């Protein structure tokens, strides 16, 4: 359960090597989170992430999880919940893909969609059911401003995030009143390994700034969080730009 300060005592990160996910974990550990599960494919990076969080004083456990293996999600994630209540599930996995390559390679495009959307739907429903069974908890879903309106330069990734965003909002409505809180987080350009080498977009942010926004959103029980907040206004305007003009914009 959450402590007297509203901080989750236990955290499950789906995407155990996600830089944003780990930034959230570090921030919450400094705020009294004590148990952290890192779910992801076995790798030296996952081991190093677990070691780093243990150094902060958390009880860190790892579990093998693959977004592209939805048939195993119920068993794998179900075992985590049998170990004790989970106060917060952070759905943080996702891939950017390579738009220029993926347009001419449908299997690669499908892999982006299966990871970002299909895998998230599966894992999200499994965790939502487990949270509902225990009667409390939050599910935080990392979406993206890219899902607000598909752009020519990344419509494969953007469409997968649009689907994820709609799913998470609908799931939040379905769980309203059950004691389970769903929060959608929409960051803009985040400086991570995934975006390394790409031209930096305006209002770029960092994993630490996203983590701060997540913490504040949890405290306020927000349903949607934009990072940075100014993107809410920017995207509200861009949604209404005529398509003939939008396709020519350098955004």
Automatic annotation (TrEMBL):
InterPro entries tied to this protein: NAD(P)-bd_dom_sf, Sc_DH/Rdtase_CS, SDR_fam
Keyword annotations from UniProtKB, A to Z: Oxidoreductase
Family the UniProt entry places it in: Belongs to the short-chain dehydrogenases/reductases (SDR) family.
Name under which the protein is recorded: Decaprenylphospho-beta-D-erythro-pentofuranosid-2-ulose 2-reductase
Organism: Streptomyces yaizuensis
Taxonomic classification: Bacteria, Bacillati, Actinomycetota, Actinomycetes, Kitasatosporales
């Amino acid at each position: 359960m959450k402590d007297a300060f509203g901080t989750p005592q236990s955290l499950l990160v789906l995407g155990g090597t996600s830089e944003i996910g780990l930034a959230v974990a570090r921030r919450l550990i400094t705020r009294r989170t004590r148990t952290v599960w890192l779910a992801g494919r076995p790798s030296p990076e996952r081991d190093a992430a677990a070691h780093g969080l243990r150094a902060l004083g958390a009880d860190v456990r790892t579990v093998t999880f693959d977004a592209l293996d939805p048939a195993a999600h119920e068993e794998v994630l179900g075992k985590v919940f049998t170990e004790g209540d989970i106060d917060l599930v952070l759905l943080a996995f996702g891939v950017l893909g390579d738009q220029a390559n993926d347009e001419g390679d449908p299997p690669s495009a499908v892999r982006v969609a299966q990871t970002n959307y299909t895998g998230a739907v599966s894992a999200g429903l499994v965790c939502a059911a487990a949270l509902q069974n225990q009667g409390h908890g939050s599910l935080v879903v990392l979406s993206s401003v890219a899902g607000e309106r598909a752009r020519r330069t990344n419509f494969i990734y953007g469409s997968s995030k649009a689907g994820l965003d709609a799913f998470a909002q609908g799931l939040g409505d379905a769980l309203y009143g059950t004691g389970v809180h769903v929060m959608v987080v929409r960051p803009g350009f985040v400086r991570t390994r995934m975006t390394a080498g790409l031209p930096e977009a305006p209002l770029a942010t960092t994993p630490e700034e996203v983590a701060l926004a997540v913490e504040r959103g949890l405290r306020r029980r927000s349903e949607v969080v934009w990072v940075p907040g100014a993107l809410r206004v920017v995207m509200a305007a861009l949604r209404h730009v005529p398509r003939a003009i939008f396709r020519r914009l350098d955004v």
